[in-house]
Structures are given as C-alpha cells and as structure tokens.
Amino acid sequence: MTSENILVQVDQLSRFYGPLRAVDEISFEVKKGEVLGFLGPNGAGKSTTMQILSGNLAPSAGRVLINGIDLLDQPKQAKALLGYLPDQPPLYRELTVDEYLLYCARLNRIPAAQRKSALDVAKQRCGLTEVGRRLIGNLSKGYRQRVGIAQAIIHSPAVVILDEPTVGLDPIQIREIRHLISELRDEHSVILSTHILPEVQAICDRVQIISKGRLVLSDSIAGLQQRMRGESLWLTLRQPPELVALEKIVGEGQVESLGDGHFRIHAEQLEQQAERLVIEAVAQGWGLYEIRPERMSLEQIFVDITSSEYGMDAERLVS
Amino acid sequence: MMAFTIAGRELRSLFISPLAWSILAVVQLILAYMFLTQLDLFMALQSRLLGVAGAPGVTEIIAAPLLGNAAVVLLLVVPMLTMRLISEERRAQTLSLLFSAPLSMSEIVLGKFLGVMGFLLIMVLMIVLMPLSLLVGGSLDLGMLLAGTLGLVLLLASFAALGLFMSTLTEQPTIAAVSSFGVLLLLWIIDWAGGNSGASQASELFAYLSLLRHFESLLKGVFDSADVIYYLLFVTLFLAMSIRRLDADRLQH
To answer: Closest chain B residue to A77 measured between Cα atoms?
Structure first.
C-alpha cells in the first residue's frame, strides 16, 4: 500500500486441498487501470487464485487487500469493490437478462434510483441491448458469457476478475469479448485468467505465469517482448554463395546452412549484421529474398518456463 | 435488507417453474377433499351434538383435523420445495454470484429461508380460507383457528429450516429431499418410543422432542409459549447450522 494506485495487493497467498498445494505463497499487485493476465496450464491454480481473490474461497494463509481493505476481515466492504465472473457464468436460466441483471444490481446494493441506468449501461457495454427480454436459458453461449460479464461490471467495481472469459466461444465472439475487456481497462482494473496465449498478448499490460501453484514469471508485456526477441537471423538467398563467404561477413557468429538457400545466423548485434548482410547480398547479386529476426513465441517462453523449472510436460497443455 | 432481495428472487423462480403451481394445486385438491369429508361428518353429527353439553364445535370437528392433515401432507411436500435451495445453486455453480456479492452468509441463508416461507405462507392462507368460508353460514372459534394456524406456520418453518440445512449438505437435490423427509418423519414419530412400555425418563424426552407433540396442543387451541419457543429454537438451530455449513465451503477442509 505504498502507492495509492495499487488496487489489489496479494501477500503470500496459499491454499491447500488436503496435502495438495493448489496455490503456494503467491504475492503480486495490480495497479489501477491495469489488465493483468494470469497464465498457466490447466490445474496450475489459476481458478483457485481467482476464487480466493473474489472471496469465494478462503486462503489457507496470506491475505488479500482490495484497495487497502482486507478481504477476510471486512468481506462486505471489499466485495463491494469486486466484480467476478467464474469459469462457469453464474446465471439463472429461468430469468430474463433484464431480471437477472436487476437482481445482480440489487445484490450489489445499487440504490433503486440508479439501478435502471446501471442496467442500461452494463447492457450497452456488453452488447445485450437487443436481448434484454429474452430468457437466459435460450441464449447462445457467447451471449451468456456476455451476461456473465455484464453481471460482473454492473456495479462499476474497481476490480473485475474474469476467469477464462473466452473459453468455448467462436473467433468472432472472442474478438468481441477482447474488445470489451480492453474497454473495461479505462475504468476498472482487470484480472484475467486464461490458458490462451495470444489473448494475453492482445489485451494484457502485464503477465503472470503460474505453474504448480507458484508464480514463475511476472513481467510486463514489453518485458515479455524483450524476452521474445531471439538471438538469430533467418536468411534466404536465391543464389546462395559458399558458406565461407557468409561466415566471413558475420565474423564472430555462426552460420547454419539449412539447404535450399536458407540460413540461420547466430551472432551478437543482429541489427548491424543484418545491415551488412543486405549490403553484401545486393552487391554480390545473391538474390536476397528474405531476411528477418527470429523470435521466440510466447508459447515457447511459456513452455520453457513451465517445463524447465518444474519439469512438467506443458507442451500438451498449451496447445 | 438484502435477505428480502434473495427471498424475492427465490419466490419468483418458484412461481416461474410449474413446480410451485402443481404443488399448490395438488395440496389444495387433497385438503379440499378432506375438508369436505369432515364437513359431511359434521352435518351428520350436528343434530346429535345439539343435545350434548360441552360437545365439540365446528372448529374442533372441521378446522383442527384439517390443519392436522395439512401438516402431514406438507411433511411430504416441503422437502420437495427446500431440496433445491442450495444444492441446485451449488450444482449450477450459481452460488458464486451470492458469495462474491457484498452479502453475509446469514443474509444468504435467511433470504433462502424467507423465500420458501413466503411460498408456504401463501399455501397456509389457501388452506385456512376453507374453514373461514364456513363463516358465511355460521360462526367459528376464531381463537382456536388462529392458534392452530400459528402452529401450522411454526411447524412449516421448522420443516423449511431443516430442509434448507439438508440442502446445504449436498449437491444432489434428491438426496436433500430424501434426507430431510427422513429426518422430519423421524422427529414426527419419535414420541412413539416407549409408548408401549410405559413412561420412562427417555421416552418423555423423546416425546418432548417430537415435532408433532407441540403442534397438537396448539391445534387444541392451547397457546403455550413453551411450544412456540420450541419451534423458534428449532428454526434458529437449523438456520445457524446452514450458515456454518456454507461458511465451511470457503474454508479449509
């Protein structure tokens, strides 16, 4: 709580299920207006963490402060600042969208005079204006997910916690939901759990990777991009020269020939190397066709981190 | 008061589903039949009763048995109403909506309880309307009817509290229904123990625990605060246990 901007502070949070450590001494902070992505293979403890943050589960140890209010000591005040969408949206199928959202507004103690406008705003933001009078049970999965999100933001909470909001949706719906989430960041802090990697790249400011209940990486997206920058160049030439000619240009580095005019070049200071290679290739008429830095994908980083540090087979899980 | 919001939704959901309507209809039909047979009996006896001093009146012959029968019928029906309260929400994973809203556990439990009570009060009203209709052609012992109605309401509150507690224990509504019916029936007949072998210390205790015993005195028009307190304690106990049980959901197992 050193800064006023920190909305969520998590200290040494642990949760055991019998002998199983689902969450193991996790600490992190979320600032105002930040979208935090929570990544991890299935069963890594994402949902457990989300449930603890939302007050659905009590931690075995540690504490959660929402805007400086302890979630365990003053649950009512803290929960008033929270909006939570569990991995299964908590919808009453027998109610219409309007009835349901009004009920949620009442549960969140929105004064009667403001309920209608809160309902309209939430519906408009989630694209539900057309379906207000329809039964939730008759809506498609994408719409139900939106109702779930509308439920989480109807009382304009400071912190919105979304547990796998795009699971099971089609690509267009996923795009809409992502768009919605990036709109949310203007007014709310968002904590988002997912195991879909591009989603994190697309909408989050910061990423945390959790594996076997521990935080194994916590970095900004920019920092992650930095990590993703590779140490090699990919080069394709139509009329490739002898390997020696390339090695001469590269100097200290290594050149791998991959056949068909493809080369991979490992060297320090790749930008300068690339420049030199281009000049040389043009001068010698090698028929330069393609040159690009090779990047590690987020997926590779994810697999590296989750498998190297804890030796688990994460490859299967991220796909 | 947030409990009323939850109660309102509960009641609404009950009336949206056909369950509430069919229960109301079936109970009303059966009790109406019983009411009419009782009325028939009274008509047959009426002339003979005229001559006897201190003979039972209309209320004792018609209303008291009707309320007594209603208690037995509702013993079967209430578990069906209460079984879904928590277990269904747990199964559909909608409980997290309540858990993440700024509500205390007691508000949630109280809301659920009041929702069912609202429905049961409607049912009691419909039942009591039958003897009240006799006012058109005669007079009733209103005090006695009131005591009996109060007894029925208290009894139903006990049924509902116990059913609610059973519903917090499981994810399967049917299990909640069967177990609440079992426990209710046991508490109903618990005073049978030792009934044959004379009154021992234990059987008196069992008799005191019986849900039926306290209802019977109210049905006779005897308003004993001990009976009322018994029911209130019963309800409080099971509501408190439900709150504890739901709290335990979040805590370490």
So the answer is: B102
| Domains recognised in chain A with CATH numbers | 6-81+157-212 (3.40.50.300), 91-148 (no CATH), 227-295 (3.30.70)
Reported as a single tens digit per residue, the pLDDT across B212-222 is: 888 988 888 88
Q: Which of A212-216, A293-297, B59-63, B77-81 has the highest mean pLDDT?
A: B77-81
Instruction: Give the count of domains, chain B.
Output: 1
Distance CA B117, CA B145 (A): 20
Q: Does A135 touch chain B (CB under 8 A)?
A: no
Is residue B241 pLDDT above 50, yes or no? yes
Summary mean pLDDT of chain A? 83
- Candidates A200, A222, A11, A137; CA nearest to B94 is A137
C-alpha to C-alpha distance for A38 and A213, rounded to whole angstroms? 12
Residue A163 CA: distances (Å) to CA of A34, A37, A50, A78, B176:
16, 10, 7, 19, 30
What backbone phi and psi angles, to 5 degrees, belong to B54?
70, 25
CB count within 10 Å of CB A95 equals 20
Q: Which domain holds residue B215?
A: 2-250
Q: Quick one: pLDDT at residue A318?
A: 41
Single pTM value for the model: 0.84
* Distance between A84 CA and the closest CA of chain B, angstroms: 7
For helices A97-107 and B2-16, what crossing angle results, to 10°?
160
Q: Nearest residue on chain A to B98, judged by CA atoms?
A: A107
Give how far A317 is from chain B: nearest CA, Å: 25
What is the predicted pLDDT for the residue at A268? Answer: 74
Q: Inform me whether the pLDDT recorded for B17 exceeds 90.
A: no
The residues facing B134 across adjacent strands are none
* pLDDT, average across residues A201-212: 86
Report the distance separating Cα A192 and Cα A207, nearest Å: 10
- Give the number of other Cβ atoms within 10 Å of residue B104's Cβ: 14
Q: Could you report the predicted ipTM of this complex, rounded to two decimals? A: 0.85
